[in-house]
Amino acid sequence: MEKKNLKGWLYLLPAILFLGVFMVYPLIDVFIYSFEEGYNSASGTSFGIGLYNYEYVLHDPYFLQALKNTLILVFITVPLSTLLALGISVGLASIKKLRNLFQTVYFLPYVTNTLAVGIVFMILFKPTAYTDGLVNIFLGMFGISPIDFIGGPYWAKMLVLCIYTVWVVMPFKILVLTGALASVREDYYNAARLDGTSSFRIFRKITLPMISPTLFYLVITGFIGAFKAYNDAVALFGTELNVAEMNTIVGYIYDRLYGEGGGYPSYASAAAIILFAIVLTITCINLLVSRKHVHY
Amino acid sequence: MDKQLDFAKAEARLKRRHTVRNMLVYGMLTLWGVLVLFPFYWMILTSLKEYGAYNAESVPSFIVTNPTVQNFIDAFSKVPLADYFVNTLIFTLATTAIMLVVIIPAAYAFARIDFKGKNLVFTLFLALMMIPNELVIITNYVTVTNLDMRNTFMGLILPSVMSVFYVYLLKENFSQVPEELYLAAKVDGTSDFKYMWKVMLPICKPTVITITILKVIECWNSYVWPRLITDEEAYYLVSNGIQAIRESGFGRENIPAMMAAVVVISAPLVLLFLVFRKKIMAGVARGGTKG
Asked: Fewest CB atoms within 10 A around its CB: which of A132, B155, B172, B238?
């Protein structure tokens, strides 16, 4: 094929323009911001170059709170949702009747507006002047006294946040795992059954190894997604997340950029780069572990 | 004789075990189904309850005896829900349309046109896929603010247009179209542009539709960028709108009306999903995120 340099670049031009202005330039700029000390967004001047922004962010109690919240959220919801999704997908794979219906229902949370449905969760968990809220009434049947899940103790708020996060991320995980389970060849199962292998052993020795790449893919994307949690928290606790002690790292970045504590793009940039570094590290660890443990 | 009886017994036992296991599986699946559907049920139910009746219930009732549409009227008249809705519609349609105009030629160039530096640019594109939005949003915020595009549709739309992943997805699909077709078209004197438009696109329509739907979902639900860039209510999208309704809302805590707003906001995507169920699920399985 003859070379058509001009034409090729012409077709790419719009994409390159958009990417250049809104991705490549910002990517370089965010590093510059993060090292400029005392940057003033009004005058566009700074005192000098250094690590002060990182130091500030790492000593900021709001950031530390956000870091703690995010870590708790990540290490609870990722394993929990992955295991739950695995159980449900295996169940789905073993039935024929109603399978399509279940799959459709399970996917619904994916297409909903996280902020809008989060409000429903808030109402279910929140005691008001008139009522203890449905969840508390339910718990009351087991003799548990009402808990303010939205404005109450830290662990209660964290619990709701975890529950809502799991609810939101499940559709994607179930969908991907169902696909992976369906692609395991029937021959393997038949051969094992012919040998009289128990179904638990079949699961451990055939199914699990065959879908292990998918499981690791889900764990990695799950970690990345959970580290960027923010919308779920806003949906449940409103935009004043620092007051609610429920801020996340991403929330901290936006708060530093805009709003009450805003106007500090340098701090926001430093926090964003710290977040990126954490996610990158964890992804690399995951990849190393998966090299060892993903079979076939 | 005995042996045969044993066999029948064993078979019966196996069958029983099967039924028990099946019941457990269906029980578990139904439980999760209920947990998924319950919030939807609750929001529709609450949106139909009267304000007074709702607040009088100390134990919320699971059925509504006197359904009312007053909450929906309130949602549209007392708060600018219709404006949020129209804004989101404009934002979603414009962003998706511009995205298609931008990514289709790019994908075509990567798949069909041979030019200097193609492999390098393509690698760079792939590398950009790994850059999280959080990293670039800070500068974009400053850029858009400096350009005086806060509280404009331009400011909302332009930074949201590009999705490198969709370029990749479409390029993969374009590459699958046999090259003979391209050569034949060339012999007939068809231009690249016409070929892309009249041959490639119709063949790859399923992928284009999938990408369009995924982008629409993404736009409809976007919250962070609109929140940063709009502080005038006239430019709020539904996500910001519902947040505003929740915080200042109806002047008092009117949960039924709030739920009516939530129903209205959720309905379009749920309907879209029910219509394009297979396409959306296949598309998300191939290129979804949010997990």
From this structure: B172
